[in-house]
Amino acid sequence: MKKPVQSLLASVFAAGLGVTGISMGAAQAQETVKIGVIEPLTGGVAFDGMSFVKGAQLAEKEINAAGGLLGKKLELVVADGVCRPAESVSAAEKLITSDKVPVMIGAFCSGATQAVMPVAERSKIPLVTGTSSLPRLTEVGNKWFFRNTEKDTMEAAAFSNALINDLKFKTVFYVAANDDWGRGSVDSFKKTLEGLGAKTVGVEFFDQSATDFYTLLTKVRGARPDLVFLAAYTQSAATALKQAKELGVESKIFGIGAVTTPTFLKLAGDAAHGLLAGVAYASSIPGAENAKFVAAYKAANGEDPSKYAMFGYNTTHVVGEAIKRAGAADPEKIREALAATDYLGPTGRVHFDDKGQGYGFSLYLVELTPGGAVVRASKEIDKAAAQ
Questions:
Q1: What is the pTM of this model?
Q2: Which of 132, 285, 339, 367 has the CA that lies 20 to 30 A from 256?
Q3: Which CATH architecture has domain 152-279+364-386?
Q4: 3-state helix, strand, coil in the chain (%, to 5)
Q5: What are the tens digits of pLDDT across the range 225-267?
Q6: 334, 323 contact by CB (below 8 A)
Q7: How far apart are CA 134 and CA 127, in angstroms?
Q8: For the chain, which residues make up each domain, given as ranges?
Q9: Could you name the CATH architecture of 5-150+288-356?
């Protein structure tokens, strides 16, 4: 019987990332400390999920080169969650019951992570996300959940003043992925920008797999906003930018999400030039820790890291350090160690507040130029800003 195309794709992607998806035998299980990783390896967000895994694998290599964890090798057990709730829950259940992981990282998209959170809580397994930014994830009182990234309200607070008061944008058209992250981002920015006096002239959402933005962008062009807010993943962001240029959309575009990833820059080409982006990471940010990470990632993968690669790398190191401090591959001890995190990564120090929200890192306003992403401003997220 022939395998379904989706299964074949998953096998190809997994092979390219060194992911087997096969449980180890009892003897090997005793020789490794496992971290479960749920990321989209297939589907519309696969580029970004694969980037996250590559960053995580670099951290795995570094940890093992330094002696591993608890006297054993670290083993990442990677599962394809497709950025969808049902598939991500199935992946989590397999990682917990079959692979016996004591901690998980995932599940990329906010909706998928939200679906996995009760599974982690019920099983008493820590879950750390490096990408899911929906604010309510850290508002539900799940002590087993930690967010090693910004939430949408942080981005809105960090960038809105510059957009309205410094750059003087008065009217805004919102374009975003039709998922929890996209809708949440629009809600957060719309509320904050309107509070500063900006007028909303349109809101449109698109499917993650969309490839035709002409009708949507024709509405944008007709509204003639000062600013277009774009929340999109790599492929859709690049396609939207190229089609906006074709249609002659003259409004300034401010993007969040995947708009500084190397793949996005290659796909968008000169259509990305002049784009403003609010990001948690760009490979051009200053600092010794980032320079070290960029050099290591480029040596391993032949390209600069994206923000997703950085968060895969950073989150794996955060979890690895927690396992070391826990002194055992015990979920409760790892959870307690995660709560006490003080880790220096490429974007600054990482801590978690009593809700599991990360803080201590910085957010960046960058402009995309022919020479790359140029940092125009930055803001460190302190504990008060994490609330």
A1: 0.86
A2: 339
A3: 3-Layer(aba) Sandwich (3.40)
A4: 45, 25, 30
A5: 999 999 999 999 999 999 999 999 999 999 998 888 888 999 9
A6: yes
A7: 15
A8: 5-150+288-356, 152-279+364-386
A9: 3-Layer(aba) Sandwich (3.40)
